[in-house]
Amino acid sequence: xxxxxxxxxxxxxxxxxxxxxxxxxxxxxxxxxxxxxxxxxxxxxxxxxxxxxxxxxxxxxxxxxxxxxxxxxxxxxxxxxxxxxxxxxxxxxxxxxxxxxxxxxxxxxxxxxxxxxxxxxxxxxxxxxxxxxxxxxxxxxxxxxxxxxxxxxxxxxxxxxxxxxxxxxxxxxxxxxxxxxxxxxxxxxxxxxxxxxxxxxxxxxxxxxxxxxxxxxxxxxxxxxxxxxxxxxxxxxxxxxxxxxxxxxxxxxxxxxxxxxxxxxxxxxxxxxxxxxxxxxxxxxxxxxxxxxxxxxx
Length: 298
Description:
By secondary structure, the protein is mainly alpha-helical. 79% of the residues lie in helices and 0% in strands.
């Protein structure tokens, strides 16, 4: 009995860690909605991730000092990928709606098992494929009201592919090095590259009557939804497959809807409720331990 409890706990804790990470990601949408009216989005990304990189370097310096060359290499690769995903998503958002952007970004849940198979020949069992489809339908229900595939949508879809590669490689790299080092190096690289992308034309910083509030929002998104969430994701992915992790991370729009209702009093529509229910159902299906659906390679 105690062995079964320990096994269930071993499976549950990474899921809870990822839910906490996606909760922090989801909370940022409501917080930054007002901020981005006053600050250019590329300047915002540069300030946010530069702050995250500096804080991560200071906090985790003892780990970084002892890290080997491979740890820095793995972290740098992940940092470049994460930066590319952020920039492609941001560029695409300028040419398409936020709802379509949210759906297409969430398509990394479909692309993750595809990338895992193409790169590493990892096969998924029928249960996980069913969960992937269910999560995708949930995302579409929450986000879509019709769209056509144009330049903006193509850029966001490319960002989803980059995020899928990022998720798959985290699973691989975290087994070879310290999750803290992996997180810190990612943040340092992400901060440096994001600030470089913001430099042309100068970097606008928060000013005026709402400057203190804006800096507080940036600090929260740098430290908690930046460093904290990535550390939780990295730790969790050392204990679960990339596909399972991607399915759990589709809860981000559910959290975004929750915080939009709580913080800025948006209306909770039936479509959001139905889509969120499907996503939660997909997460439950992905974690069920059904003997007849187990895969030896999962």
